[in-house]
Amino acid sequence: MNKTEYLNRLDEQKKIQELMKGDKYTLNFHLIPPSGWLNDPNGLCQFNGVNHIYYQYTPFNATWGMKLWGHYTTKDWITYKEYEPFIFSDIEDDRDGVYSGSAFIKNNEFYFYYTGNVKHTDKKYDYISAGREQNTILIKSKDGFTYKEKKTLLKNIDYPKNMSCHVRDPQIFEKNDNYYMVLGARDLDDVGCILIYQSKDLENWDYHMTLTTPEKFGYMWECPNIIEISGQTFLICCPQGVEQQGIDYANIYQCGYFPLELDLEKKEYKFGDFIELDRGFDIYAPQTFLDENNRRILIGWMGIPDADYTNQPTIDKGWQHALTLPRELKANGKKIYQLPLEEYKKLRGEVQKTLDCSAKNVELNFEFTTCKNFNLTLRDSISLTYDGYIFTLDLEKCGFGRKIRSVKLKNLIDIQIFLDNSSIEIFLNSGEKVFTSRCYSKNLEANPKFYGEYTLNDFKWYELKKFEILK
């Protein structure tokens, strides 16, 4: 879809937006698509005090379709501005979709890298070993809003010969006067892996090395980020094809990280154990960036591909999916902790200490002195339980197919919950474990009730204001 085709369909978009009005499940402090479908966050960056949030976007269909890059900006994470799509599918090398990618800023210029999707239909293909192009494309921009041309940097022939047609989602980082591009991949033996390319000028790239686990861990690794926090290197990625093990790896596709020892000069590496980044139902394709305060910020897609549960209430209103709360990442040894951004405290109303919580959009905070077990019910069909060993989220009837997700937890110290009209995000033990999920309760009042064997050091809650989106 090129820009002209998009502009010719704006009346169609207005009809969808009319349908969206008054939807009780519209989110108040999460970004949703202006219409249609949203998935992966892309191109996250901060430039001259402005945070740019691009995302996978299908404006005219709430279930699937041609992908563009939508665009929001914010200076304070409370007030946002919406723009028309930034990247359209308008050259041969991205004719079937502008797929995921990232931004890198150098010398006051944006370098956007993304995957251009091409799907051949001249004959029957398996679309794994043949029939698909995954082209790595570069756009340079002075302002993050305009660009003059697209340049294809890598095509299937430029990837190692043992790769399938699935190589995508470029991310760039700089190390020791070199630039490195990280790509998620699937080889011809159906082994998930990461490709790393090297460059001196951000435009000419040479294959450098491949990362994978000693034993197969899924058939495809999507949306990779190699990052460093407090001196510890991590690989965040989304492995597909990992079988469930008890309460672990319960989603169809995984979202997590490996602690990583990586020597780029010697081309040596060692993975630690894979850790799930989030234990909820709706989390995928997270992307991170460093802001101007040197905070490592993560935003994820509050959704997941190919799930067997639905978002039918919002599909019926012409839209689907959202982005997670932005989170600051901290390292605790070889573990990543996630904390909601400090800026979100600006959404808080007056602090409340009573159990009378009839508000719909709230932040709830529990701090325990001791906790042997705990049971909390919210709204009409959300329950959280802790038995001294396992913490569980049960969405009962409001999950639309979502049922139970759990995590092992040695002790429960605190719980922070953000409850929006159709989402819940739960941060345990100051971000040690996180649950992110969509939920569709009939009654949206929080109405918390809790009991168990515990001693509370503190309980408080805040009604949260809606953030503002400027057109």
Topology:
Layout lengths: L2 H5 L2 H11 L15 E12 L2 E9 L9 E7 L4 E9 L10 E9 L2 E11 L12 E10 L8 E5 L8 E13 L2 E10 L4 E8 L6 E6 L8 E10 L2 E9 L15 E8 L4 E4 L3 E2 L7 E7 L5 E7 L9 H4 L3 E2 L1 E2 L3 E6 L2 E6 L21 E17 L3 E5 L3 E5 L9 E5 L5 E7 L2 E6 L4 E6 L10 E15 L4 E3 L1
Parallel strand pairs: 1-20, 4-32
Antiparallel strand pairs: 1-2, 2-3, 3-4, 5-6, 6-7, 7-8, 9-10, 10-11, 11-12, 13-14, 14-15, 15-16, 15-17, 18-19, 19-21, 19-22, 22-23, 24-25, 24-28, 24-31, 25-26, 26-27, 28-29, 29-30
Rough shape? globular
Poorly predicted sequence stretches spanning 5 or more consecutive residues: none
Q: How far apart are the termini?
A: 22 Å
Distinct helical segment count: 3
The Rg value, from CA coordinates, equals 22 Å
Q: Count every beta strand, where a strand is a DSSP E run of 2 or more residues.
A: 32
Secondary-structure class = mainly beta
Largest sheet: 8 strands, antiparallel
Strand content: over 45%
Considering DSSP H and I runs of 4 or more, what fraction of the residues is helical? under 10%
Arithmetic mean pLDDT: 97
Oligomer: single chain
List keywords for this structure.
471 residues, mainly beta, 8-stranded antiparallel beta sheet, globular
Could you write a compact summary of the structure shown?
4% of the residues lie in helices and 51% in strands. It is built from three helices and 32 strands.
Q: Could you please describe the fold and organization of this structure?
A:
The strands form 6 sheets. Strands 24, 25, 26, 27, 28, 29, 30 and 31 form an 8-stranded antiparallel beta sheet that branches. This protein has a 6-stranded mixed beta sheet with strand order 20-1-2-3-4-32, with helices on one face. Strands 13, 14, 15, 16 and 17 form a 5-stranded antiparallel beta sheet that branches. The protein is built from 3 helices and 32 strands. The model has no long low-confidence stretch (mean pLDDT 97). By secondary structure, the protein is mainly beta. It is globular, with a radius of gyration of 22 Å. It has helices at residues 3-7, 10-20, 312-315, and strands at 36-47, 50-58, 68-74, 79-87, 98-106, 109-119, 132-141, 150-154, 163-175, 178-187, 192-199, 206-211, 220-229, 232-240, 256-263, 268-271, 275-276, 284-290, 296-302, 319-320, 322-323, 327-332, 335-340, 362-378, 382-386, 390-394, 404-408, 414-420, 423-428, 433-438, 449-463, 468-470. The longest helix has 11 residues, at 10-20.
